[in-house]
Each structure stands twice: as C-alpha cells, then as structure tokens.
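Key result, reporting period 2: structure in, sequence out.
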C-alpha cells in the first residue's frame, strides 16, 4: 500500500501521458525527483533503518533498492501496468508497457560502493542523463526513443546533459589548470539543487578526479554527524570544508576547533597527517 502523499503526487503529474510507456517513464522520473537513497542504509546496510513502503512519503522519502523496487512496482500495477520485482541481492523492476519489455533500476550502484554515480535517483535530481530505464531488447528502439523524448520535452529533461557538463569542465581546466575556485563553485552550484547526502556524495565522486585530479590538493575525509563521510579540500594553506551549503572556506584554527569540539571526526590517520603537522597534532 503506497502512502497518500506519494499517490497524490503521482496522480497530479501524469495527466499528459499518451501511452503506458510514457506513463511508466513519467512515474520513474517523478519518483526520482522526490525519493532519496537512505544515508543511514548507505552507511550501516541495515534494512530496518529504511521506512517500509507504506511509510515512504514526501516528508519521509528515504529508500534502498528493496523499497524503491517495491514502491515502483506497486505504482505501475496500480496504473494498470503489470510488473514484477526481480533480483537477489539487488532488486529492480521488469515490466511490459505497450509492446516494450523494460527494466527499471533507479538505485543501481557498483558492488560494495553505494557512492557510485550510476543511481538515477542522483542523475534525475541534478539534471543528468537518465540511464537505467532501459529497453531490454532493441527491436523497437526507434519508437522507444520517440516516446522517451516526448516525456523529456514535457519535463525539460536535457538529454546529453552529462556530456555537456564534462565538456565544460574539460574546457575550463584546459584554460586554467590551477583554478580551484572553479571546482568549488561547480560543486556549490550543483549542491543547491539537491540536499540528499548520498546523491551529493555520488556527484562528488563522479567529478572530483576531473576537477582536482591534476592539482596538489589534499582530499581529507571526515564524519560530521556520524552518518556519512564528507570532505575537506586543502589547497596550500587554504581549506574548503564541505557543509550542507556546499564547500566553505575555513582557516586551520577553525578546523582544529571543530575537531576539538567533536563536530567533525577525521576518518583516517593518513588524513590527519595531511591536515596537521607534528606540532599541531600534539596540541590536538
């Protein structure tokens, strides 16, 4: 049983669908706008930390692969599209819409790496390419693309957006190989689009090697509230601390105070070595 808020949200946004394929893709996109991968599950891998399907609401929107698949499957069946949840360790949904056999998997990630960028829960929120609503065979690829493009136009989904972002990053780096502020501003602009902890982490992991891999920046991992690790970028004597508002410049005394006050906890000893010289470590 899906919650009233999720049902009403879907009902209010599917009126323009012309067929079952458009309907299924629209529901997939709409759920991706409002559901978030559970940060508690991402760290602890315990199912009891994720709300059950009937308790997933717009105010409690946290899922893992099991609950997302159950929810999407239930909604498809509710709107007349027969589907089923498949998979052993990782759950996804298969169904037939019109003449198309399809597989949908909004929470997929690489084995043992929940922060891999593959998740469409992340891609949809940041306006990147939707990649795991898939036609299982290529028999009707041309017609399939036409229906998908129809929905993309309706919601202003920019197909090929990820390619454009990567091209813009590369062009900027080619112009100025030491422009750390470009990378900081890039993340801060994107972070405004989504406050999901897992989704932001996936975005960071996707673009960090390209934005900063060529510089002498130290990347320091830490826990802030004990749920997920975040980052501190150290560039020469300047520090950029990842917060809920993006990366904010801090001085070393401010970082030391946060550690002493137990507001952040450096994750690895080698990260502490990057942050502190021997004198500072004695003080801390």
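The corresponding designed sequence is given below.
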């Amino acid at each position: 049983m899906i919650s009233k808020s999720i049902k009403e949200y879907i009902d209010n946004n599917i009126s323009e669908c012309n067929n079952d394929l458009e309907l299924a893709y629209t529901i997939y996109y709409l759920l991706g706008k409002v559901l978030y991968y559970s940060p508690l599950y991402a760290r602890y891998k315990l199912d009891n930390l994720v709300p059950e399907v009937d308790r997933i609401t717009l105010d409690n929107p946290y899922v893992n692969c099991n609950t997302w698949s159950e929810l999407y499957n239930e909604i498809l069946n509710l709107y007349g599209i027969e589907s089923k949840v498949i998979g052993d360790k990782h759950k996804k949904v298969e169904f037939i819409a019109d003449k198309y056999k399809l597989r949908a998997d909004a929470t997929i990630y690489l084995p043992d790496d929940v922060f891999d960028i593959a998740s469409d829960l992340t891609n949809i929120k940041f306006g990147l390419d939707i990649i795991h609503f898939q036609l299982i065979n290529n028999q009707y690829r041309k017609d399939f693309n036409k229906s998908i493009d129809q929905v993309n136009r309706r919601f202003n989904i920019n197909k090929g957006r990820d390619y454009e972002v990567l091209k813009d990053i590369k062009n900027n780096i080619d112009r100025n190989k030491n422009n750390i502020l470009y990378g900081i501003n890039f993340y801060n602009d994107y972070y405004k689009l989504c406050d999901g902890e897992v989704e932001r982490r996936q975005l960071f992991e996707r673009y960090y090697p390209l934005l900063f891999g060529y510089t002498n920046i130290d990347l320091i991992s830490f826990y802030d509230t004990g749920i997920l690790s975040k980052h501190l970028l150290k560039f020469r004597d300047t520090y950029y601390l990842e917060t809920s508002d993006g990366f904010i410049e801090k001085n070393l005394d401010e970082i030391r105070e946060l550690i002493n006050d137990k507001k952040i906890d450096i994750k690895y000893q080698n990260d502490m070595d990057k942050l502190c010289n021997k004198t500072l470590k004695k003080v801390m």
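The longest helix spans residues 197-212. The longest strand covers residues 229-235. This case is discussed further under Risks and Mitigation.
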